[in-house]
TrEMBL record:
Annotated GO MF terms: transmembrane transporter activity
InterPro entries for this protein: MFS (IPR011701), MFS_dom (IPR020846), MFS_trans_sf (IPR036259)
Gene behind this protein: ABSGL_09588.1 scaffold 11399
Protein known as: Major facilitator superfamily (MFS) profile domain-containing protein
Keywords: Membrane, Transmembrane, Transmembrane helix, Transport
Compartment(s): Membrane
A GO cellular component entry from the record: membrane
Domain Major facilitator superfamily (MFS) profile, first and last residues per copy: 49-452
């Protein structure tokens, strides 16, 4: 009996030590050790980079989600589509995402990120603007597919830029910022959509949805030009105007995040990623999360309208959903930093979203259903933490690109499937999302156990000196690498 107790105590100690090393934000590279110079550098990077990233993610979200507003402002009548065709038009954008992933993986390692992304944004802006003149299901499918094709490179590029510019301990905040940008896009986009309905509906014979596409399309093309010239895409970008002291700090930060761009595609790193169980578990968790996101996003206004509100009220009532998303992400970031538990935080946010789904399905009052609908948007906070898992726990440039691309592919598949399961019955869709949330939580638990197990195995293997990041070792090859849980 005493032996068992002692063995249990040892396991607990190992788990606590692994948390301190692999998950705690209080390590030797964390912010309370930062020099004043490094704090100023981080502020310089953030104020130069993050406002532009907010604009990119904002227009990306709005350009995809205009469909939801268009659905109650004349799209069905003007394009002569039915509910099933609407589901396909909502989903086909993600087919474009999938088709472009392989060429994107090659181009992302060969081209300057800012120039490449600027061109993609300009092209998708042209497609959004062109959507204002479609008048059939076939034309709508075509522009939606092209929109997905040109948007597909955005997230992998942003992820790798943030991986390179921020320490691992900072990445839950910056990846959370991406999802906050998305959530604010929901609220602000709904407010702008309401304003367009109020002022431009039937203007010059055009319904409000056509004006929405034209206005946002023009704004997006302008943003593409700005990104081409002004986006920071490396830690040593000339746009940062680094001093000699800051250059030395950048070198130390690179030793922490272990991201040095390489134009060489290392097949062995791709194969290593594919052989890892956590790669597939994380991607499946992302898939189930994205299914719910895709369904809720595509049917957001229609779903709220079905609770007894008119089209304009339904648009307005979607403003709080974006605010709820932002609030949940902020809570998740706070909890992750305070508890040092990114994966548990992701599971907790998945649980909140699950509760929302159950309330939305089972509650009989419209007010209760609306509250449940708002709770479901905790899914964005769960997704932010899933992205952080990759940033914190994958090294090797090609391997990190592979993980990020896998996340985008499975996120795309989920968003493609999500609206389709809602097409015939909201109830069926909600049940599918509930089951998916449970499976997602189980998969995340396995990922945490797997990385904790490796941390424990490496305790006696670690070398006294830090690994040179220029060697481009993967997290499996580098015995000094500590997984953050």
């Amino acid at each position: 009996m005493d032996t068992k107790v002692e063995h249990t105590k040892n396991e607990i100690v190992m788990d606590e030590e692994a948390n301190r090393e692999g998950s705690s934000f209080r390590s030797e590279d964390d912010d309370f050790h930062y020099s004043d110079e490094e704090k100023r550098l981080v502020r310089k990077i953030s104020w130069t980079l993050l406002p532009l990233i907010w604009c990119i993610v904002f227009v990306q979200f709005v350009d995809k989600s205009i469909m939801s507003v268009a659905a109650v402002t004349g799209l069905f009548e003007d394009t002569h589509i039915n509910k099933s065709q609407y589901s396909w038009a909502s989903s086909v954008i993600y087919l474009g995402y999938l088709v472009y992933q392989v060429p994107n993986n090659i181009l992302i390692q060969r081209l300057p990120h800012a120039k490449y992304l600027g061109v993609l944004i300009f092209l998708w802006g042209v497609v959004v603007a062109a959507t204002c003149v479609v008048d059939s299901f076939q034309q709508l499918m075509g522009v939606r597919f092209l929109l997905g094709l040109f948007e597909a490179g955005t997230n992998p590029i942003l992820y790798i830029i943030l991986n390179a510019l921020y320490r691992r301990s900072e990445q839950s905040s910056v990846f959370g910022f991406i999802l906050i940008s998305s959530g604010s896009g929901s609220s602000i986009g709904a407010a702008i959509g309401y304003g367009i309905v109020q002022t431009l509906d039937y203007k010059n014979g055009w319904r409000a949805w056509r004006w929405s596409y034209l206005i946002f399309g023009i704004c997006t093309t302008v943003l593409g030009v700005i990104v081409f010239f002004l986006l920071i895409d490396t830690p040593t970008s000339k746009l940062l105007r680094l001093t000699e002291t800051e250059q030395a700090i950048v070198k130390k930060r690179t030793e922490d995040n272990k991201v040095i761009k390489s134009k060489t595609i290392k097949k062995e790193q791709i194969w290593e990623a594919f052989k890892e169980a956590r790669f597939w578990c994380l991607n499946l968790a992302v898939l189930f999360n994205a299914m719910e996101n895709g369904g809720m996003l595509s049917y957001a206004v229609i779903l709220v309208q079905g609770l007894g509100f008119n089209s304009q009220e339904a648009i307005l009532l979607n403003i709080p959903s974006g605010m709820a998303s932002v609030l949940f992400i902020c809570i998740a970031i706070y909890l992750a930093r305070r508890s040092n538990q990114t994966i548990y935080t992701s599971i907790g946010m998945t649980g909140v979203s699950l509760i929302g789904l159950i309330v939305l399905m089972a509650n009989e009052s419209n007010g209760g259903k609306l509250a449940g609908y708002y709770l479901t948007w905790a899914l964005t906070a769960a997704q932010a933490m899933m992205i952080t898992i990759i940033g914190n726990n994958v090294s090797g440039y090609t391997k990190k690109v592979t993980y990020n691309s896998g996340l985008v592919v499975f996120n795309t598949l989920g968003n493609f499937i999500g609206p389709l399961v809602m097409a015939n019955s909201f109830m069926v869709g909600l049940i599918v999302y509930i089951v998916g949330s449970v499976i997602s939580a189980i998969l995340l638990l396995y990922i945490r156990w797997n990385m904790l197990h490796i941390n424990n195995q490496r305790k006696d293997q670690r070398l006294g000196e830090k690994t040179d990041p220029s060697l481009d070792y993967t997290d499996r090859q580098d015995v000094n690498f500590v997984y953050r849980l």
